[in-house]
Amino acid sequence: MSDEASSGPDLNRRHFFKAGSLAAVMAAMGGVPITAQDAAKATEASGGVLPPPKVDPNYKEKPPGPPVKCGVIGLGNQGREILAMAARLPNAPVVALCDHYKAAFRRAAESAPAAKQHADYRELLANPEVQAVIVATPTHLHREIAVAAMQAGKHVYLEAPIAHTVEDARAIAAAAKALPVRQIFQVGLQSRENPQNHHVLKFVRTGATGRIAVSRGQSNKKQSWRRSSPNGDREKALNWRLYRDSSIGLPGEVGIHSLDLACWYSDKLPVAIHGLGGILQWQDDREVADTATVILEFAGGYRHTFSATLANSFEGESEVFFGSDAAILIRDNRAWMFKETDAPLLGWEVYARKDDFLNDSGIALVANATKILAQGKKPAEAASQTEPPLQFALGRFIDHINDGTKPDSDWKAGLQSTVIAIKAHEAVQKGTRIAFDPAWIQV
What we know:
With 443 residues, the protein is α/β, with parallel strands linked by helices. The chain has 15 helices and 17 strands.
């Protein structure tokens, strides 16, 4: 998500499941907690049956790679969050900052006090010390900055969505496609870089859920998206997400991750996109819906529904995939499997830790089992070992630069997800169905 633009009544999110009782509630409903683990080789070697984790006395965590000096362009809420996450990484020093609003530097100085300040992004790109650029400006300003950064030879991390028009998205993708192999372009699709979602993907792709019939995602948070300023021009700039010429609304600024996850997990592009919505809560001069529902229609009858509202915070954010043998719920960087009573035994259940709640048994899978056991910790401590998704995504960006590896959230994923989000926003604004043309994502 690009530069955050929320203020006004921004209430604390009311979680449907409180943190302390979440696992118990899930298990009581028949849930199987699923968290990412490095067990692909063991699973393959055992013919699909996952063996219990064991302590490897020779285990050593991979040391961090060499420092990659970074510049951050755009110091709004998201830019400052990026600075805070980068400060947690051992090898991502921020040496340069850029924003045209002077007050932004004061707020950003806490996380990057030694960084050089630039009022013009071109000055930052000309700084030879900067090796990688993180672009967190408003979405409609991405094209010029991202393309210039790539042309300057910088590695680029670009927040999602990558653009607010199909034309701009394709131009950015074309520039990224033409980069040398060792020059990294990564999109801020945090789900694609997160091992948690890769782990859940195994259950979907290997048929543990059975045939996926339908899925849904949601994002409910009561906030206005409006920010105030005594300067009229500045206020209009701050509220870019509220207007048609600069925003792709809830489907783009919030829903892109849910829509992308559905396409990624199903390994399909939609054949059509349906949209409904309106301005139902915040009666001001905004031009984009504050409440929206999007339906991605896929060949074969599978559909994914995404709904979002800025009017209410109940139930927060989640994703659910409904299969004939099991459903999978993803929430707060954790996941649970709810097996049907007639589902076949998968094999790995016999090794898993079982917790009895009411009449059901919840089966726990441990995140990074080898690492946690090697540290002398209990598998139950796994939930507290996960890094924030943004921190992990930025860490992967640095790893890709050092290792010369290709991001999972590359230009293809960025272009595809952005175009789908753009068309979803168009469908919501018009209250219509739009047939999806694969030519939109060709470069």
